[in-house]
Hints:
The chain is elongated, with a radius of gyration of 30 Å. The chain has 12 helices and 15 strands. By secondary structure, the chain is α+β, with helices and mostly antiparallel strands. Helix 4 packs antiparallel against helix 9 (211-244). It is 51% helix and 19% strand. Strand 5 and strand 6 form a beta hairpin.
Amino acid sequence: MKKEQYQIVGMHCASCKKLIETFVGEIDGVESVHVNYASEKMSIEYDEGKVTIAMIKKAVSKGGDYTLVSDQEEEKQDDSKDTVKKKEYRKAKKRMLIVGLASLPFIFLMIYMVASIFGVVKMVHAPFGFIELESFNYKINAFFLAQWILATPILFVGGKQFFVSAYNALKARSANMDKLIALGTGVAWLFSSVVTFFPKVFNEIEVDVFFEAAVFIVFFILLGRWWEARAKGQANDAIASLLKLQAKEAQVIRDGEEITIPIEDVVVGDSIIVRPGEKIPVDGVIVDGASTIDESMITGESIPVEKKKKDVVIGATINKTSTFTFKAEKVGKETMLAQIVKMVEEAQGSTAPIQKLADKVSSVFVPVVVFVSVLALIFW
């Protein structure tokens, strides 16, 4: 069995995590799969003989607008300094801005409606008049038609992801918030379209349209998800900045000679030389020499600390004054810096008690809302 961890781009709620786990878990040969929504990473254990990376990618994309990034792709993206996550962030920002600009006419409409409530202006049902086809005895409210023309692309192009996610959740027999968004905005658009194109259905009753409600729901949710993506990106950047504090190479004494090796090749027991101005590669104990070390990245203390033989030194801190030799005791994931990064990631991905309660509520919230809506329709 092979254990791997992959980056997932495009998740926007806890339901996304469940959808991905459901579809990937259905692959024959997958032993276990766990998705961390906060860090956007998927841990998977699978049989290499039965499962390929292409199969996993396909299963991930079945859940919605999600992308799995393999290690090779991450390296290529890092080399070009344009990661998939940054592309997704820019895409979300662009979509939100376009929908926001397209929603401006509806903002003026809302201001007009509020002003009419307070008697500042008089509410006119058809301010642009009607488009009439006398031979067919058919007429359309031009004001409603203008709203339909503006709202339709906003809903089905700008808000496409909600309908795709809702459909995938339906296939997976799962309830997510996108179902409510798609249902609410879709019904508002459908009802308003009937009012616009088939006004005789309501006889002589004067009925209004609700295009602005569908438009604003789409815009505000896109805005919220963009803010969320921005916050998550900043948190991930903080973790990446921590990792950058680590030294890249180490001067190790092996077979009586000093050689320079990548930090990944350092093993416990290696004797490492650190000169003034250099970063300490890993955690260890001084065996020869003494110096002062800047440990501000760990302790926050700006004044360098004096270190002598048998004192502990911490990886990624900076040697200030003298050359010394120390013995490596903790390397790789065992160093203090690696442990700090691990704790930050765990805190980022942990679930607070109130969030667990919210998850339980949301699992029944969607079916209950749909049930109440159906009852309201029947009794209405």
